[in-house]
Amino acid sequence: MTRVDDVVTVRGERELFDRTAHLFGSATDIACAANTLHTWASSRPGPGLPPARDVQGRRARKIYLPSVLLDEASAEHLRQLRELGAEIRISEREINETIILDGRLAILAAEVTPDGRTFTVLSRPDLVNGISSLFEAAWRSSTDISAFEARFAELRRNTPQLLDLLLSGCTDETAARTMGVGLRTYRRYVAELMAALGATSRFQAGARAKEAGLL
């Protein structure tokens, strides 16, 4: 760990949890932006996602990328969060993975590297206010998750097979026959999957799917 004034760099998910668990436990207003549900869940001990009940009695706002809806377990977790009162929106733009607690403390997640991940914990008011402003802008430009649910139901069912076919290197014609759909339908599925993953190529779609925990 390194520290400069009110900015602390934490190395690794376990250290992040050890240093901030009490802050999460006492927070009444949580704002979160993440690519997947696992970004912050990995900072907690034990496997899997954090219990959905963690949002009870708090104001919780969460922003995710569309790819979070491609996994049934993640989609079900989000449904549970909503039932408990969390507000969840989807952003089709890249987002900075951030947690803000009670408007007084912010945690920023760095990119994943072969050596692991670092997190920056900030408590200086001017820095936290600036990060909060960025979150509020992202929140206003994002869309309530309900607008995506029907649209993603079919795509979520097809995602495992689509990814297998894309990785197999077979032709679109062969893939369409394997799925039992027409060529145009298959290509529409692929285009929708790439859009959900924020990918501009099929190769990038595979990489993004791996990052999202779909492979």
From TrEMBL:
SUPFAM superfamilies attached to this UniProt entry: C-terminal effector domain of the bipartite response regulators
Q: One MF term in GO for this entry?
A: DNA binding
Q: Where is the HTH luxR-type domain?
A: 161-209
Taxonomic source organism = Amycolatopsis rhabdoformis
Q: Could you identify this protein by its name?
A: DNA-binding response regulator
Q: Which UniProt keywords apply?
A: DNA-binding
Highest taxon above the source species: Bacteria
